[in-house]
Amino acid sequence: MEKQLITLAVAVAGFYGIDPALFTRLIYAESRFDPAAVSPSGCVGLGQINLDAWPLAEWKVQNGDATDPLANLMQAGHIMRWLLEGYGHCDEAALWYGKPPLDAVAAYTLGHGATDNLVIAAAKDRRNWLDDLDEPVRDYVEYVAAGKNSARWGDWNYEEALE
């Protein structure tokens, strides 16, 4: 089942123009590809969608099942694409220079308002905003955004998982 879900996540990444390695790491970190996953804060499904933050989610309106793999992945892809665009990771310059989408990934887990506040406060003091993150969140951001080997998630990647 996991291989089918990984293949589906890769297809959704392609649909939204997201790096499939980034998107599959995001889903792995969020749910370990468990469609029935529910976090302590109530986020659901493969992409751990917060129903309160995204009350008009397409899949919620059309399907009503927050754990439906395709619908949940489509919503996660929609959110990540929106965040990548908002933080400037979908323009040609960002792709050319290989700017890792640390801020967009942080916004996926913390919320874009909290991430904006961190980045702005750090810029005022000329420090790296990543240093202001708790260690588990920084580990998550660096793993998902850049594939950094993580004590929590190891060096999991979709290509090896599909072999």
Tell me what you see in this structure.
This protein is an all-alpha fold and 163 residues long. It has a single domain (2-161), classed as Lysozyme (Orthogonal Bundle), CATH 1.10.530.10. The chain contains 9 helices and no strands. It has helices at 2-16, 20-31, 58-62, 69-86, 92-97, 102-110, 112-124, 135-146, 158-161. The chain is globular and about 45 Å long. The two termini are 14 Å apart.
Helix-and-strand structural type: mainly alpha
CATH class: Mainly Alpha
- The average pLDDT score comes to 84
How many domains, as an integer?
1
Query: Can you count the helices?
Result: 9
**Tell me about the biggest sheet?**
none
Amino-to-carboxy terminus distance: 14 Å
CATH architecture term: Orthogonal Bundle
Oligomer: single chain
Radius of gyration: 15 Å
How would you summarize what this structure contains?
The protein has helices at residues 2-16, 20-31, 58-62, 69-86, 92-97, 102-110, 112-124, 135-146, 158-161. It is an all-alpha fold.
Secondary structure layout plus pairing:
Elements: H1 2-16, H2 20-31, H3 58-62, H4 69-86, H5 92-97, H6 102-110, H7 112-124, H8 135-146, H9 158-161
Helix pairs in contact: 1-2, 1-4, 2-8, 4-6, 6-7, 6-8
